[in-house]
Amino acid sequence: MSQADATKSDPIIVRLAELVCAFKAEQVTPLALKQARTCILDTIGVTLAGAEEPCTRILKETPGVADSPGKSLIMGTSRRTSALDATLVNGTASHALDFDDFSGVLGGHQSVPLVPLLFALAEERGATGRALITAYVVGVETEIRLARAVNFHHYDKGWHPTATLGIFGAVAAAAHLLQLGPQRTATALAIAASLASGLKANFGTMTKPLHIGQCGRNGLLAALLAERGFDASLQVMEHKQGFLNVFNGPGTFDAEKIFANWAAPLEIAADTIGLKQYPCCGSTHSAIFMMQELKREHGLRHDDVAGITLLPHGRRLKHTNTPRPQTSLEAKFSVQYVCARALKDGAVRLKDFEGEAHFDPAITRLLEITQALPHPEMLDDAEEQWGAEVIVALKDGRTVQRRIENLVGRGGAYPMSSDELWDKFSDCAERTLPREQVAPLFERLETLEGVSDIAQVTRLLEVSPLHTRPPEKIRLAPAGTEAAPETTWVP
After folding, report:
1. Domain limits of the chain?
2. Residue 372: exposed, middle, or buried by beta-carbon count in 10 A (0-12, 13-18, 19+)?
3. Which site among 48, 79, 119, 463 is 20 to 30 Å from 319 CA-CA?
């Protein structure tokens, strides 16, 4: 038997653990480093934005949660607790607004199962920024490789991949940071298979972001148990009653896709990784981006517009065709509303989904002259399904239009600029942090690989109990999360 055949005969968990532990910082290419650093920065921003959302606040106030002594910060507070509890709270906050980055392959959000965990664990253990980034990269590799093996049957069946697959990324990241070694890493991954959970039936409720907090906490718990000698079945993935056959079902997965060309190229450097520039349904982003480009190129003023035609890819319109949103959550799923906002204000921000912002008279006028139709040239079965065209008719008789074939968030060929990243980060962070801390935090995260101790970053995430949040930053509407149709993933 060849060495390759012998390797393939090993349990899936064992093979995966070997790859996780063999991964070195030198394998993080310059592109992967840049993308990882950006995604981590973005995740910290949206975590701060979600720190005072109702789901996070209730969790912090629940007896027994975050009561344990420890070194790990609950972001946006002065409160420190165990790494497990900090991961639970910060992880829930990170997904509270559904403003976090996403992966078109994962069918979910790759960073939130990892970043809150890694910051909590790194602060507890005194890890460096470089070690944290390397652990993050191997965590993303793990969860997206698993997604290649099981999706989209896994997603369509009703599982929430951010949690059910993200937990394996969480274990891989934690195990790498802890340097557990192959045997204990395999055990931790095997434990995680029994802790994986998250049902799409709870989308649109506070329980969706709780999936993420619990996913990160469970992943860290699995790693900490394995570190101390806990055991688990190493055949837990391929067993007839194991993860793949229970969560997916026979014939609906291909485990070898986990291992094919592992880390070559790295998943974090792929064009399928996208940031959310706008705090609304990801399926609206290509149309918003085109509207912003038209406004910039032609100096459009909303009161000079006579009519708007929006032509997203048909799969993007099915769940975003909400001509007259009546609630803040409906506004997040209205391509008409968000494009009207982009035209009027040149931006789409968190405040646009608070209170009665969707009833702004200028926006109402634009909605009355807007139509949205599936693009006739963008086929449902096309490889690229994230395109849109925007056509604006002006009162002076001119018509301007802009089209993009595929935009999976802002990444790949259309990365967010430093200014755009700052706009989003500051809008998020100032909802929790004193304004004077925001710019230093942003700058420190932009050079995270040079940080010798993560405590240098977390002290900028700490807020005095005497700090009062600006009234205009308080969210008036209940936290909403994104509901998805049964067979089409919505990031």
Report:
1. 3-273, 282-404
2. buried
3. 48
CATH code 1.10.1060.10 for 282-404: no
Nearest to 49 by CA among 87, 120, 99, 83: 99
Distances (CA, A) of 259 to 9, 13, 95, 168: 13, 11, 29, 14
Question: Cα dihedral sign for 200, 203, 206, 208?
Answer: positive
Report the pLDDT averaged over residues 39-61.
97
Pair 312, 286: CB distance under 8 Å:
yes
| Cis, peptide link before residue 485, omega less than 30° from 0 | no
The pLDDT of residue 385 is: 87
- The one-character DSSP state at 477 is S
- Residue pointed to by tokens 């070997």: 18
- The CA distance from 71 to 395, in Å, is 61
User: Model confidence over 435-454: pLDDT tens digits?
Assistant: 999 999 999 999 999 999 99
Res. 408 pLDDT band, cuts 50 70 90: confident
Non-local (6+) Cβ contacts of 159 within 8 A are 198, 199, 200, 247
Answer whether the bond into residue 425 is a cis peptide, omega within 30°.
no
Reported as type and span, the H/E element at residue 311 is strand 305-312
CA pair distance 257, 127, nearest whole angstrom:
32
Contact call for residues 230 and 185 (beta carbons, < 8 A):
no
Mean pLDDT, all residues of the chain = 92
| C-beta separation of 394 from 309 below 8 A | no
Distance CA 152, CA 254 (A): 12
Pairing of strands 80-81, 102-103: unpaired
Q: Of 202, 223, 220, which Cα lies nearest the Cα of 211?
A: 202
Q: What percent of the chain has pLDDT over 90?
A: 84
CATH of domain 3-273: 1.10.4100.10
Name the residue among 311, 317, 236, 177 with its Cα closest to residue 16: 236
The string of pLDDT tens digits covering residues 91-139 is 999 999 989 999 989 989 999 999 999 999 999 999 999 999 999 999 9
Calpha distance 290→169 (Å, rounded): 34
Catalogue the E-assigned strands of 313-455: 370-372, 388-394, 399-404
Q: What is the DSSP string of 67-126?
A: -S--SEE-TTSS-EE-HHHHHHHHHHHHTTTS-S-EETTTTB-SSTTTHHHHHHHHHHHT
**Paired residues of 392 in beta bridges:** 308, 400
